[in-house]
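Supplementary Note 2. Why include the ligand at all?

Several targets in our set were suspected to adopt different conformations when bound, so apo predictions alone were not considered sufficient. For every target with a known small-molecule partner we therefore ran a joint prediction. The input for nicotinamide-adenine-dinucleotide is given below.
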Amino acid sequence: MPAFVLNSTITSFIDGAFVAARPDSHRIAVINPSTEETVAQLCEADVTEVDRAVQAARRSFEAGSWHRLPVEQRIGVLRRVCALIERDADELCRLESIDLGIPCSQARGMVTARVIRNFGFYADHLTQAAERAVRQDGLYQRYVHRDPVGVCALISPWNAPLMLATSKIAPALAFGNSCVIKTSEYTPLALARFMTLLAEAGVPPGVVNLVNGRGHVTGASLVAHPDVALVSFTGGGAAGRQIAATAAAGLKKCDLELGGKSASIVSDSADLEAAVDGTLLGIFANSGQMCFAGSRILVQRKVADDFLDRFVSRASAIRVGDPFEAATEMGPLAYAAHLERVLSYCKPVAGDGVTVLAGGRRTGAQRGYFMEPTVLLADSADARVCQEEIFGPVATVLRYDTFDEAIAIANHSRYGLAGYLWSNRLDESMAAGQRMRTGSLMVNSPMVFDLRMPFGGMRESGVGREGIESLRNFYSEEKAIAIAMQPVPLPLRLGVR
Ligand code: NAD
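The joint prediction is reproduced in token form.
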């Protein structure tokens, strides 16, 4: 089995093995955000190495080494992947904590459980999947055959490296494709280790390949490669726009899962303690580095003081620190420049109508990209902190009077990923379901994922949905087949003299 060692040089994984490090390759230091120590060196894949990875995927696809295997065999491989993740969960969680700073105690529930689910779900799906057959007219036997698309480029971000990468790899594999994944250059560790598990589980060489490096080098080469037929991207809007343009020029299928600035509406009818619990989790879990974070909290004025007293005191009590301490509730931010960017939102300027109610500063006695859980109170929904995705542990609170006003503020955003409502009124829940312009809405709950349900965003939060129905259509092509059951009357016979 190919080796993966921490403190080593991480290279691309092509055709079932890590490739040798090229002496001339650009090196990127992988830094532990809790200690600021370099834990590995990443060898960036250039255009030639990306081509090698795509060619490996293409060869495996054309040979049918994966998609032509009997479905029971493919299901068996997906189930073995689940078993191997379970076996190595402690190590994968440790790597994810070193890479991203997520508390190790939370990684088991939030990361590996979800990664297992990603593969288990599609293994289960394949046991049931069947296509339509139609024979109404008596002349033809018609049926739908599903083909895999081909070589898929999968591009994922750093905020949930293993979970988001595998949420693309699993459906790409389930529907018979070969792929090349590029994860974030900031957080490559756990996914590199995971590649060895895919090989051990029996995924044939070349079917899943990994390339590492910066977006404008490795990512851009991958998306532009003429043999790539499909691009699945999760990340920010700027990269999303470039990727969509390149994919469109090559007429490639393209799915974009982008950022958010999701509203959590707290109505005066809500169970306030449950709302405080849920909204805290919604913005401070994973240090707020979640696309679906409930980062704008809209509280009805009648209960705003009570809510804010509880929310601010609980936010200030969150234990920030070493992700390997069992008591830690929030780790550092993922990398230095990101910490600086998040902190820049926490220094309100006179006249912008924003008050810091808690936090706002870097923390941690020694090293590491730690910051305090932060609560900002804004006077206007137009404030920059209410409009831009901060992607850190920063809750922005706004007060409202009527439910109509709450909906108007919630929809006053260029994003439209998720929405949350804390309310004990059925009419408010039903109205929010109809009027919130978001890809999903949770009532009296923080974010819940179900792979049977669509997930994705409206407006600048993305194009397309992840969820079984959309992903089946995205990762496979429908083919309509008609077989004549008897000589069929032709509309005309040509060339008869
Ligand atoms: P990013 O867009 O900078 O990078 C995402 C990935 O794309 C990285 O692997 C990066 O190297 C690559 N990339 C960047 N430019 C590229 C290019 N021109 N061509 C090809 N690849 C390129 O985003 P990020 O900072 O890593 O992630 C944070 C963003 O991701 C936030 O906006 C967050 O909301 C969003 N996100 C969305 C979802 C979702 O499901 N909607 C989930 C997680 C994160």
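Residues 296 and 378 are 10 Å apart (CA to CA). The longest helix spans residues 104-128. Comparable summaries for the other entries are listed in the accompanying table.
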